[in-house]
Q: What sequence folds into this?
């Protein structure tokens, strides 16, 4: 390897990993314990003991249920999220690169962003029906704003020296977008994508509560209406786990794509 | 035969919010093929403006820049620019090799040739094993070397350098000066080097063009008749070096003192 790659000794690296795992797991362990102990003697129907909830878990979340309820939910989420990402980055790049377009669009964007996406569900149902399209549209319409607005800011903030460098070497058009503008805006774009991810999960559940025949949101509401309270709680746990897994996946992708950015920031911190 | 680079009657006036600032008044000079010319002037004398007009990054108000007889209207494909702000001129999301290669891709050179040019350019600046490092893993001086390598690989007919060593420490600076001088002698490239450092101008240049204070005109041009073989230790203490240095210094001091004559006639103050 080149002499510029940072080398770390094996033992020290392992200790760091273990320590980090300890830090990551400590608080969840404490919270679960507190929940377990506090709910242990509970006779309240709505607050069943954690023991009961965990016992119900394997019976409720069978492979069959993962296939019929979790899979459609995740697919809708991914569909809506991907649509929002593509539309948000594309529109954001156009708006961010042209001052005139920005002046025209900005007030409208601020207005649209301020509308809470859940209130759009009934409206979207009118033209998108009650099928998967509606759910994907709802998720996309909520996720698109943080991506769009962050892309606009990121594209606007391209360093003038970098822009001139690109220009002086004749890097224009598609190459300029691909090699200069989008990478330069990518830290901001990822900040938007991260916000969009949590919005997406919320909208996935809400859209499935309105009109659906399967999905996580639908199942949880079904359990609640049928007074299957421990089952309902297991659904909430699944939602939490899903959010956790998605955010871990997101972080892995981000580390990969923005590796240069974290390295750059670390190096400027060392030598201001 | 056309000179490699000819600037004639160049004038640049910035207009904005009711204020007119005349940065460059009337500049005429030429650079012959294979020359190393240093432009030196008091700080704030419009050196950067001049250089950007020559690079086609700014449009002059009047006058013209000719590159081998052809008028420069935008960044020409056979001119390379090295900026003072090396940290902002290299793309931090690309490795050193990719940074050097990017303009070559834009030129649509075949892959094999690109690789050769990149390796050769990095070897010339003594960074052959930094190919896969990121720019921010390198010191400031090394980053500027990468920027120089990028310009070399581009194989420009004219290399423009805008105070490239103003932001590095004195020792690195001396090394980089020798590097530029060495590259010039080895490769016979045409270099226009802008600096505010009088010693640097005399040490590097075959010819020094002294500029006046803004609004800028050419104050004097002088040929540096030092031997082509120069080194930091002996050249800088040579009596001829001291004479030339003094000559340039006097010119710059005079330039600072002088109020350009027609600035008075242009003001609204009544004639005395």
A:
């Amino acid at each position: 390897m080149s002499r510029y790659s940072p080398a770390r000794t094996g033992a020290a690296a392992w200790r760091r990993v273990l320590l980090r795992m300890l830090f990551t797991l400590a608080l969840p362990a404490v919270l679960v314990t507190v929940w377990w102990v506090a709910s242990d003697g509970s006779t309240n129907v709505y607050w069943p003991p954690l023991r009961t909830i965990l016992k119900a878990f394997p019976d409720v979340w069978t492979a069959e249920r993962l296939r019929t309820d979790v899979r459609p939910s995740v697919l809708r989420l991914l569909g809506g999220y991907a649509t929002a990402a593509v539309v948000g980055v594309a529109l954001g790049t156009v708006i961010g690169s042209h001052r005139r377009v920005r002046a025209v669009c900005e007030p409208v964007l601020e207005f649209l962003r301020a509308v809470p996406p859940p209130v759009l569900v009934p409206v979207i149902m009118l033209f998108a029906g009650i099928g998967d399209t509606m759910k994907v549209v709802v998720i996309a319409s909520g996720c698109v704003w943080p991506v769009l607005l962050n892309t606009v800011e990121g594209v606007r903030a391209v360093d003038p020296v970098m822009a001139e460098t690109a220009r002086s070497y004749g890097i224009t058009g598609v190459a300029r977008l691909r090699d200069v503008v989008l990478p330069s805006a990518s830290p901001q774009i990822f900040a938007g994508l991260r916000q969009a991810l949590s919005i997406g999960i919320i909208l996935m559940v809400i859209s499935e509560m309105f009109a659906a025949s399967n999905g996580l949101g639908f199942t949880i509401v079904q359990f609640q209406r049928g007074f299957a309270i421990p089952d309902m709680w297991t659904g909430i746990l699944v939602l939490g786990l899903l959010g956790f897994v998605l955010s871990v996946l997101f972080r892995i992708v981000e580390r990969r794509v923005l590796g240069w950015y974290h390295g750059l920031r670390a190096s400027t911190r060392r030598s201001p | 035969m056309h000179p490699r680079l000819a600037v004639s009657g160049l004038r640049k006036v910035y207009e904005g919010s009711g204020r007119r600032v005349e940065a460059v008044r009337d500049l005429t000079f030429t650079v012959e093929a294979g020359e190393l010319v240093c432009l030196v002037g008091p700080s704030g004398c419009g050196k950067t403006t001049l250089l950007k007009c020559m690079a086609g990054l700014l449009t002059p108000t009047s006058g013209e820049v000719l590159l081998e007889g052809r008028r420069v209207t935008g960044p020409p494909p056979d001119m390379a620019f090295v900026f003072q702000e090396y940290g902002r001129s290299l793309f931090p999301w690309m490795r050193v090799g990719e940074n050097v290669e990017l303009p070559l891709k834009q030129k649509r050179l075949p892959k094999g040739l690109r690789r050769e040019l990149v390796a050769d350019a990095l070897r010339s600046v003594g960074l052959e094993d930094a190919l896969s490092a990121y720019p921010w893993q390198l010191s400031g001086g090394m980053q500027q070397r990468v920027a120089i390598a990028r310009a070399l690989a581009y194989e420009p007919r004219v290399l423009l350098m805008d105070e490239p060593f103003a932001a590095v420490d004195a020792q690195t600076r001396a090394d980089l000066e020798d590097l530029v001088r060495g590259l010039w002698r080895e490769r016979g490239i045409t270099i226009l080097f802008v600096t505010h450092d009088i010693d640097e101008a005399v040490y590097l240049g075959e010819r020094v063009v002294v500029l006046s204070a803004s609004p800028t005109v050419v104050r004097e041009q002088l040929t540096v008749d030092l031997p082509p073989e120069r080194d930091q230790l002996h050249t800088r203490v040579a009596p001829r070096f001291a004479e030339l240095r003094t000559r340039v210094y006097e010119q710059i001091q005079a330039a600072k003192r002088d109020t350009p004559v027609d600035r008075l006639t242009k003001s609204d103050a009544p004639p005395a």
Notes: Chain B touches chain A through 33 residues (CB under 8 Å).
